[in-house]
Amino acid sequence: MPSTFTPKVVTANDLLEGDVVWLTADDRWSRDMREAELIDDEAHADIRLLEAQSQRSVVVGAYLADARPGATGPEPVHFREMFRTRGPSNYAHGKQTGI
Amino acid sequence: MYAYNDFDEAFVRERVAQFRGQVERRMDGSLSEDEFRPLRLMNGLYLQLHAYMLRVAVPYGTINPTQMRQLAHISETFDKGYGHFTTRQNIQFNWPKLRDVPDILEALADVEMHAIQTSGNTIRNVTADHFAGAAADEIEDPRPYAELIRQWSTDHPEFQFLPRKFKIAITGSPNDRAVTKAHDIGLRMVRSADGLPGFEVIVGGGLGRTPMVGKVIRGFLPTGDLLPYIEAIVSVWNLLGRRDNKYKARIKITVHEHGIDEIQRLVEERFAEIRPSYSGVDQDLLAEIKQHFASPVLAERSVDAFEAARRADPSFRSWSDTNLAAHRVDGFAIVTISLKKPGATPGDATAAQMRTMAKIAETFGYGELRISHEQNVILPHVHKADLPAVYEALREADLATANVGLIGDIIACPGMDYCALATARSIPVAQEIAERFEALKLDHEIGPLKIKISGCINACGHHHVGHIGILGLDRAGVENYQITLGGDGTEDMVIGDKTGPGFAYDEITGAIERIVLAYLGERLSPEETFIETYRRVGIAPFKAALYEQGETANAA
Questions:
Q1: Which residue of B has its CA nearest to A66?
Q2: Å between A64 CA and nearest CA of chain B
Q3: Residue B149 burial (CB < 10 Å; 0-12/13-18/19+)?
Q4: Statement: the pTM of the whole predicted model exceeds 0.80
Q5: B304-396 has which fold?
Q6: If contacts are CB pairs under 8 Å, which of residues 36-95 in chain B contact chain A?
Q7: Which of A29, B31, B219, B502 might form a disulfide with B36, Cβ 3.0–4.6 angstroms?
């Protein structure tokens, strides 16, 4: 039995800075997951991933991550993806700077 | 310590120039990530969870004050003002930008440092006893041999595409502080029946998903045969080792699959073949290297000032009780600077702290510093009369934590706060445990206890050999921590026993507390250490403390 497709976002690391980025619906790479395009169609997800992977001098290691709709935009499902939205827990470094 | 000759200097500079070109080609798109990845890994550059990470080699954990200051400078110029000392005696920078990495490597080359072979399927940085050259129980300083292996293995044409990474650890003391039995090759110095120094050669040890205690392949190897014998081992494995499955590629699996007797036969056969090709150049080189490691002249002085400070200052006394080790010369001590202040990240040092340690080493420590696999910094030669001043300088830099070997001296890998491979966090677990026992004021009462935490099955945090080991896993999308007890990383290495089901992130500190309280209840006297009690009573009382109380609590 085919499993049901759960919503996804396309995420990667920025080539130059290394920090976490998400693909937006208008083809930008945002540092804020809430701006990401939430994809609920499997075929569309595959195409968006291919498009992301072709941007080889912009991002590294693009993949599809589970996400769900939140009040202000897509939110992570897995704790690893949650850490990627905010940075390490021992210092206010990475994305936590300025939060 | 070793100083680069013209060849070393030119080699390292050439690698920096090559990598600069590779980074430029990556940035302009002419190299894809698949093409660039092996090139960056050859130079210690990883892409982690939130940023790139540069792993810089600290060969056999030896570093001088000029180098330490340069690391401080790099951390401020190109990173976030700190560095992370690792369980392989290296230092990692967690936030470099890709375009800056060639400049960082250039700055490292300026002080005879590099990031070569800190990654990839090569022979990695050789690790050594962090008390090398100073320990009271040492037969011979192992670092000249480690340096010889470093020179031989760097860019060795036969060993650049091994089945998997390959790690060698060496100790010059019969008491193993370098965890030699958990390495692909472990070298433990021993004396022959007629008193000559040589090595007990251990092969096939390792932690990770299939932990194995290394096996002795040669009980006594004359020091002069070291390189051809190691070459024979790596060469046999290079052909036999499995390239079809990365989880079965390490030499521990090869030894397990073929048996130590067969591996030994093949190695001895290969050794007999290549030994004659060693003309003695290696021994000339070794003799030259040994001159670099000559001991400083350690002048005899009165230790009255030390004794007086111990009587006068309880905090100094407490620190000197825990953070000093026996030196081979009377009147001297080996100082361990704890990078484990409760609540701090194990192994992290700020730029200011690095500069303080450099200055203390220059002023009081004959210019010598070491990094330990337990993520602390060592001053190997300090006269006891200088210890009060050293302590004062450390205190001002927030480096005088008196907990070496105690429950707060936890080793922890970066875990899911940084590492792309991690399945759970390690650092906050270490922080919380250390803070809990700090609040309970129980650390001295508990005595010697090694807690080691890994954030995934690869075991960078050496959890298998912790007296209490903690392994962070992802169980159905939730962080879960599995506990092992009774591990031991010494020459009598033991892999810890699993207690049973794991604990959630917010339960793990309480679980550790129950284990420790159970120990305090079981021990025969305050002199019986945790590991001794565990060996005497076994796992049962600890399981009861972990799970039966837990069930009662759940039922309530």
A1: B477
A2: 15
A3: buried
A4: yes
A5: Sulfite Reductase Hemoprotein; domain 2 (3.90.480)
A6: 47-52, 80, 94-95
A7: B31
